[in-house]
Amino acid sequence: DAGVTQSPTHLIKTRGQQVTLRCSPISGHKSVSWYQQVLGQGPQFIFQYYEKEERGRGNFPDRFSARQFPNYSSELNVNALLLGDSALYLCASISTLNYGYTFGSGTRLTVV
Amino acid sequence: AQSVTQLDSQVPVFEEAPVELRCNYSSSVSVYLFWYVQYPNQGLQLLLKYLSGSTLVKGINGFEAEFNKSQTSFHLRKPSVHISDTAEYFCAVTRRTYYGQNFVFGPGTRLSVLP
Questions:
Q1: Across the strands, what pairs with A47?
Q2: Is residue A34 classed as helix, strand or coil in its secondary structure?
Q3: What is the pLDDT of residues A49-96, one digit of tens each?
Q4: How far apart are CA B31 and CA B111, in angstroms?
Q5: Cis ω for the linkage preceding A61 (within 30 of 0)
Q6: A90/B43 touch (CB, cutoff 8 Å), yes or no
Q7: Which helix (H) or strand (E) holds B5?
């Protein structure tokens, strides 16, 4: 089985731009979560989606949004990028059978 | 709300020596506890988890951790480390919800194994 797929692996954006990050969960998993990991810190929870609906939101501004598609893949959107948005963005695929949690390798976003 | 403290930001240790990485948490409700490892330029890999039962939990790569409810601690140990254990280690807590847990992570401890 394929693991959690995130794309792109790296990207560079300019302040004020918008970015979309993508995540494909493990086949059969209907829930995904997004985390932001700033360099030198632990990951912070951004969103959780289950069956295409938002089921949890962390303490992030409205510039951050996400959605989940019928095939359970997900996109994270960040508008009006700030330098402080530079981070590794991790997607986690969640099994609601055993609550197993599998992280992808992440997307490294650099805002310049 | 939950929070996690990892008192040591960096831990250098010689190869084949024992190591302990400390984790303390605070929560007003019962939580589940996890340790994750992150190698450079990679995502997070689960080392071990405590959900219930025996307070001594064994994980992958020879790591183990002990849950101490009275001291709200979940320290990670390995009796003999290898160079390949060099990585960042994160302690995390969560409450289980119907849709699956969402984690509160500590700031991480960088383990450097020296030859």
A1: A34, A57
A2: strand
A3: 998 999 889 999 999 999 999 999 999 999 999 999 999 999 999 887
A4: 25
A5: no
A6: yes
A7: strand B3-5
